[in-house]
Amino acid sequence: MSKILPTCVRRLSHVCTLKPYKETRWLMPNGNPIGAYIYNCVANQKVPVILSDPHVATWYACGPTVYDSAHIGHASCYVKLDIIQRILKTFFNIKLVTAMGITDIDDKIIKKGIDTKTNFTAVAKQYEHEFWLDMSSLNIEKPLIITRVSEHINSIESFVQGLLDSGMAYVAGDGSVYFDTSKFPAYGKLQKMQDSGEPSDEVKKNKMDFAVWKGHKPDEPFWGALWGNGRPGWHIECSAMVSKVFGSQLDFHAGGIDLQFPHHENEEAQSCAFHKTRQWANYWIHVGHLHVKGEAKMSKSLKNTISIPDLLSSYSADTFRMACLMSRYRYTMVYNEDLMKNAEVVLNKFKYFLQQAVVYVNNNDNKASGDYKDKMLENLQNVEEFNFDALKSDFDTASCINSLLNLVNDTNKVIKGDSKDYYPVPVMLIAEYITSVLSRFGLKLQESQDSNVMNSLIDTVVEFRHTVRSSALSSKDKELLSACDIVRDKMKSIKVQINDSNKTASWVFNK
Fold first, then answer.
1. What is the pLDDT of residue 425?
2. In this structure, what DSSP letter does residue 32 have?
3. Could you say which residues form the signal peptide (predicted)?
4. Quick one: average pLDDT of 161-166?
5. For the chain, which residues make up each domain, given as ranges?
């Protein structure tokens, strides 16, 4: 078993109660539990996260097939995976070595090249470049290692040769090489199925067999191999590239739920066969689909996609990330205006609170600082413990966001109350904790593209309006109040939302 650091072996069969191996086919790793539990499709239940090294983990995510632009279905998957990675790194102190595979040799890429009279390699480079720009615009951290199929042909050929040498694969009449599923009894363990497969082909021995090498066809690019010219099959690419980088075993393997079968199923089968092991990836992480208005998943084939630039022309990256945080990563997320507006409201509520906390602490009222308010500190501690427990349980960010909102509501009662007591310490500790959690989830909580000059001008307008409005409220001047409402509405039309209160006013960009 290959690992990047020496293993510290400690069998922890008492950590959780699992069904017998014959039923689940999931093997509990030897090593050190980090305290988190994650859903595993092989075990069909939450299982403890156990690493051979308590502070280091390997992570591989299936990247895009770069033949077209990414859409927000891809965005929701990669944002949610980015959130999980950040949680592992910042809440559980794991040194996560991340890798992503880019499929830059594929039928669709070749077809796009033919249709546009462009070399397929140029097509792949164009859309990969666009993909990384989209990921950056969503504040998704770039993997430490990027593997491209075109750069790992030799590793893929060696992998295929290994399967042929062991008798786990065979060369078909058309020059393709197929994995022989009849020789791998555990095939189907991710999907819990044994009776379906890729389309039947007269050159295949079994219905379930899949191509690890595609025989050469006229007018298509090919590479030479001992068994004949051709190019890699889709599934073999990830197995070979992961094995080259991480060896014979992987901690986390991630991707969309649509990849569970056949892609991940085939990866697991051929990798176990190649490395002669019963379990290749210890933890499979599958993200649920993004649906459009609950009707169908978003996909290019259904022509119901929304591009990432189009999304960001209407909503901020923070708003979209908040929508992802408010849903469970394994389940379907329905994209519609209600979802995004709700996420926007929640995001702005946190921004308003953080602004009001600063105003409260720095107010000019003639109040003396009271003792630390035990109830507020106790509430903060309870929320901290609740949130950590939620993250331990399959990265439940939705429960964390709800608990943070409750904490905001409770603290606002102190900030906006008429009490003569003044509690700057607990208020700032709460504000700091909320900022820390949201930042660790990948929210920026700021509009970096807005200039200081613009912010200063908006500050001046909002402060002036607040002064006028306060005077109008005191004198019950309806005409002035109406004028203040017009200013508020005008500001809202340029995406500046003003939040009025008796003591002060604040604002945020409502992109």
1. 86
2. E
3. none
4. 98
5. 21-156+232-322, 337-440, 452-509
- Rounded Cα gap, residues 465 and 505, in angstroms: 9
Q: Is the dihedral of CA 39, 44, 48, 53 positive or negative?
A: negative
Please tell us whether the domain made up of 337-440 is placed in CATH 2.40.50. Answer: no
Beta bridge partners of 48: 37
- The residues, ordered by sequence, that sit 6+ positions from 31 with a Cβ below 8 Å of its Cβ are 7, 8, 9, 10, 12, 50, 51, 52, 53, 54
Q: Considering the entire predicted model, what is its pTM?
A: 0.84
**Per-residue b or e along 465-478, where b marks 16 or more CB atoms closer than 10 Å to that residue's CB:** bbebbbebeeeeee
* Neighbour tally for 331: CB within 10 Å: 11
The structure tokens 């001008």 sit at 457
Q: Do domains 21-156+232-322 and 337-440 have the same CATH topology?
A: no
In the predicted structure, residue 483 carries a pLDDT above the cut 60: yes
The tokens of 251 are what?
Answer: 């901690």
> 214 falls in which pLDDT band (50, 70, 90)?
very high
Q: Is 290 helix (H, G, I), strand (E, B) or coil?
A: strand
CA distances from 203 to 159, 175, 491 (A): 21, 10, 67
| Domain covering 21-156+232-322: architecture | 3-Layer(aba) Sandwich (3.40)
In the beta sheet, which residues pair with residue 506? 499
Tens digits of per-residue pLDDT, 303-336?
Answer: 778 999 999 999 999 999 999 999 999 999 999 9
The Cα–Cα gap between 358 and 44 comes to 47
Distance, in Å, from the CA atom of 187 to the CA atom of 158, rounded to the nearest integer, reads 22
Phi first, then psi, for residue 101 (nearest 5°) are -95, 135
C-alpha distances out from residue 154 to 65, 125, 217, 446, Å:
20, 20, 20, 46
